[in-house]
Amino acid sequence: MRTKITFLFFLIIIFSTLAFAQEEKVCFFCGKKTKEYKFFEEQNKIACLNCLKSKEKCTSCGIPLEDFILVYDQKICSYCNNHLPRCASCNFPIVGNPNYFESDRKRTYCNYCVQTKSRCDVCDAPLGNFFLLLPDSRRICLFCLGEAVFSRKEVSEIRDNVIKFLLQKYQMVISHPLIYSTVGADELSKLSHNKNPDKNGVFVALPDTFKIYFLYGLKEAGLIEVIAHEYAHAWVKEQKKKNISPKIEEGFAQFIAFKTLEYFAYYSQMLKMSLREDIYGEGLREILLWEKEKGNDYVFEYFKL
Ligand SMILES: [Zn+2]
Ligand SMILES: [Zn+2]
Ligand SMILES: [Zn+2]
Ligand SMILES: [Zn+2]
Ligand SMILES: [Zn+2]
Fold first, then answer.
1. How far is the CA of 46 from the centre of ligand 1 (A)?
2. In angstroms, what is the span from residue 217 Cα to ligand 3's centroid?
3. Residue 53's Cα: distance from chain center in Å?
4. Which of 116, 182, 202, 276 is the most buried (most CB within 10 A)?
5. Measured in angstroms, how far is the CA atom of residue 53 from the centroid of ligand 1?
6. Which ligand is nearest to the Cα of residue 226, counting in written order?
7. pTM of the predicted protein model
């Protein structure tokens, strides 16, 4: 009796497994029953191999298309149309990998816009239909515009805070009278005789006055970076050491800007600086290495001797 029950039990198990393995499903697209299919989990739809082979498919998820949305000559399904991230420039869904221009990766951009549209002069992202054209012909996207600092009062406050930090933290006293002015891009390139590599500012040393010019309409992090950077050039100018290589001087100016941004908690801007592949990035990495291996005092003493 006991063997019979066990046998029956085994039989049930075998049958139920078989039934599971051979379970037929109905294809959502042709209505036919099938044992070979692909399950599109997010959309909860089953597609038979025949439909997968013969029908046109969504470029993004590969499901057979019933109707479609055309995104720059690529056809996508309505599910993808509703769920893909959108391009901050054209607002179409992004098929494939999105592009980023801000280190916080808040906004995504499609390849089409990246390849074809003109760019924002602040964040370099493709411009949308609306942007601000500044008198110096810089173009600023709406996102940057919302964060750009234009008021004189705000600029002075930020500048004063940067200098206060540099005096307290590094005792970077400058004895020359120092004049700050905000200028447009056209004037900035004239001032730097078109060969100044500092994109957003320039330091000019006159016999008895120092001048720092920087672009108006920068975002706060950019403003902090350029003021600290040009201030560092002014400080180096008053030190004994001359004939400093451009990489070390720009690296030191970037180092000062980097530390100031750290104090004001602009970490993503710091990351951007540290990844640059030019003398600014290389110089910064070198000075950070000096600081790490030989200490902070060594960095400053280098320019004094
Ligand atoms: Zn089918
Ligand atoms: Zn799709
Ligand atoms: Zn786009
Ligand atoms: Zn922008
Ligand atoms: Zn510089």
1. 8
2. 25
3. 40
4. 202
5. 9
6. 5
7. 0.76
From the CA of 100, how far away is ligand 2's center (Å)?
A: 22
289 C-alpha to ligand 4 centroid (Å): 32
Rounded to the nearest angstrom, the distance between the alpha carbon of 276 and the centre of ligand 2 is 37
Regarding whether 163 and 48 lie in a shared domain, the answer is: no
Strand, coil or helix: 76: strand
Q: Assess contact for 195 and 188: CB atoms under 8 A.
A: no
Q: What is the pLDDT along the chain (305 residues), one digit of tens a residue?
A: 555 555 555 444 444 434 444 578 999 999 999 999 999 999 999 999 999 999 999 999 999 998 999 999 999 999 999 999 999 999 999 999 999 988 778 899 999 999 999 999 988 999 998 999 999 999 999 999 989 998 999 999 999 999 999 999 999 999 999 999 999 999 998 888 756 677 899 999 998 999 999 999 999 999 999 999 999 999 999 998 888 999 999 999 999 999 999 999 999 899 989 999 999 999 999 999 999 999 999 999 999 98
Residues 239, 259, single domain; the answer is: yes
Nearest ligand, CA of residue 139?
Answer: 4
Last residue within a domain, chosen from 101, 119, 147: 147
User: What is the residue whose two structure tokens read 């191999």?
Assistant: 49
User: 99: closest CA among 110, 90, 88?
Assistant: 110
Domain co-membership, 244 together with 143:
no
Sign of the CA dihedral running 223, 253, 189, 271:
negative
71 lies in some domain: no
On whether residue 13 sits in a domain, the answer given is: no
Residue 295 is part of a domain; what is its CATH number?
A: 1.10.390.10
Ligand number nearest CA of 111 is 3
DSSP letter (8 states) at residue 224 = H
Residue 223, domain extent: 152-304
Say how many domains are in the chain.
3
> Does residue 15 lie in a domain region?
no
* CA 253 to ligand 5 center in whole angstroms: 6
